[in-house]
Design goal:
By secondary structure, the chain is α/β, with parallel strands linked by helices. It contains three helices and nine strands; from the N terminus they run βαβαβββαββββ. It is 20% helix and 32% strand.
Length: 183
């Protein structure tokens, strides 16, 4: 396969193993959607997808939410390299709309150290939403460095590098419809 640099990537296709299959994953995402629907019944819910990893999860999740939903997208990067979060975030793409007075649910692919989300909550909290909650498809609790309260968790997973369902390996593999681990 060709990598971003135009050269051939190390072929990791044969090192990929399914960790959470598509059926199991989407069954759990449906349950999360039902729980969120109950919690926000009669309210308008503003979903904020953290790009790019959260995109497949948020679209699937939103199909199972029965209250009125609006969506916005934000892209952040942490200073430092990809594998180690520094805790300071840089906003690459900000929200299109203000969140003042709204009930906001941040939708993330995975929580690792927790630094990105902790900082993001600070940044968004200043904008005076009515409420702000966190929802993540995956959680690596063993890696947590900053205490962040996560309201909805799909699966807790061990400290292994995973890809698929939005999560990338050097920008590829986001389109895989299940969660895989590289052995
Ligand atoms: P943290 O919680 O601030 O350490 O950063 C979480 C971010 O790191 C996620 O949003 C992902 O973009 C990335 N990340 C962490 N673990 C993985 C992984 O196993 N696969 C792919 N990306 C990961
Ligand atoms: Mg991410």
């Amino acid at each position: 396969m060709r990598g971003r640099d135009g050269g051939f990537m190390n072929n990791i296709d044969d090192k990929i193993q399914i960790m959470i299959g598509q059926k199991e994953l989407e069954k759990r995402i449906a349950e999360m959607g039902e729980e969120i629907s109950r919690d926000y019944a009669g309210k308008e819910l503003h979903l904020i997808c953290i790009l790019k990893g959260g995109v497949m999860f948020m679209t699937e999740l939103s199909k199972h939410i029965t209250c009125h939903v609006s969506m916005d997208f934000m892209s952040v990067s942490s200073y430092g390299n990809e594998r180690k979060s520094s805790g300071r975030i840089r906003i690459l793409k900000d929200l299109d709309e203000p969140i003042e007075g709204r009930d906001v649910l941040i939708v993330e692919d995975i929580i690792d150290s927790g630094k990105t989300l902790a900082h993001l909550i600070e940044v968004l909290g200043v904008r005076k939403p009515n409420s702000i909650k966190l929802c993540t498809m995956l959680d690596k609790p063993d890696r947590r460095e900053v205490d962040v309260k996560v309201d909805y968790v799909g699966f807790q997973i061990p400290d292994k590098f995973v890809l698929g369902y939005g999560l990338d390996y050097d920008q590829f593999y986001r389109n895989i419809p299940y969660i895989a681990v590289v052995e």
